[in-house]
Amino acid sequence: MSPGTLRFGYGTNGLADLRLDDALGLLADLGYDGVGLTLDHMHLDPLAPDAAARTRQVAHRLAALGLGVTVETGARYVLDPRRKHGPSLLDPDPDARARRVDLLIRAVRIGADLGAHAVHCFSGITPAGTDDDTAWKRLAESLTPVLDAATTAGIPLAVEPEPGHLLATLADFHRLRTALGDPGRLGLTLDIGHCQCLEPLPPADCVRAVAPWLRHVQIEDMRRGVHEHLPFGEGEIDFPPVLAALAATGYQGLTVVELPRHSHAGPHQAELSLPFLHRAAASATAEPPPAPSHGEPSATPEGSSTR
């Protein structure tokens, strides 16, 4: 498999100490194909009064550098300076949920203006005292207007299973998809590390199993049962089979390095990560992949999101 078969990006949540223009220039200089752009106060603030004008500037910058883009919505404190990822789509307060819905609709519009191939989101952690059925009902109701906006904008909404969240596994994604009636604009963000962390299938089999719904991919190393995003080579993942499986699906979007806890060394990690991925892709076997195995979803590891 040629390294050029897949398109690699790097997430700005791992470059939080850089100005956005500098981060984009760095990634272009290093040879990345694109960027996973987290909408946040230090980069492209979706709540700023000049967000529309700034979005146009970023779109021009991306075009000038030849970078593709995915819009990500995992900023920790963009809505609430005291609650990480708060409020969520599961918040007991309907007004609070509406704030998260508004953020996601803004993200969809920004994504459309940037020419993004997808907009990413996740469910959030189930609030204390909220039963499972209520949480799933809130999630489906909250995402409905976001999916309507995505349909109008012509851009996929890619939901990410996140360890510790209500929607934590690939099985949970299918539960949501079924509950919503399998809408055309609903897709999946597959985090390869999360597959290693908690899915019953190996990561390469996970890729094959969800190929029809794959709209965005995040990648990093990880260990079984531990939700910690690690630089490549520091975890347990065998990457060539994963990249071979991903290439075989015909996936056209970005595969984005996700190292949000490494911004202190972001430029260095970005410099190391792309050659690693190119080597792994080049060494991937050209033989047909094995048929995926089957199993039941495992329990979510202890602890909430490390992002």
Main structural class: alpha/beta
Integer-rounded radius of gyration: 18 Å
The CATH C-level name is: Alpha Beta
CATH fold description: TIM Barrel
N-end to C-end Cα span: 32 Å
Helix tally equals 9
User: Looking at the structure, what is the overall shape?
Assistant: globular
CATH architecture: Alpha-Beta Barrel
Order of strands in the sheet with the most strands?
Answer: 3-2-1-10-7-6-5-4
Instruction: Please state the average pLDDT score.
Output: 93
What's the β-strand tally? 10
Unreliable spans:
294-304
Order of helices and strands: EHEHEHEHEHEHHEEEHEH
- Report on the biggest sheet: 8 strands, parallel
What is the total number of structural domains? 1
Helix content: 25-40%
CATH homologous superfamily heading: Divalent-metal-dependent TIM barrel enzymes
Protein name: Sugar phosphate isomerase/epimerase family protein
Region (Disordered): 281-307
GO molecular function: isomerase activity
Domain Xylose isomerase-like TIM barrel: 26-277
